[in-house]
Amino acid sequence: MKRNVELVVISDVHLGTYGCKAKELLRYLNSIQPRILVLNGDIIDVWQFKKSYFPKSHLKVIKKILSFATKNIEVYYVTGNHDEMFRKFADFELGNLKICNKICLTIDEKKTWIFHGDVFDASVQHSKWLAKLGGKGYDLLILINTVINWFLQKMGKEKYSFSKKIKNNVKKAVKFIGDFELTASELAIDNHYDHVICGHIHQPQIREVNNKNGFCIYMNSGDWIENLSALEYNDMKWSIFHYENHKHLLKDDDNEEILEMNHLELLKVVTNFS
Question: Is the pTM of this model over 0.70?
Answer without folding.
Answer: yes
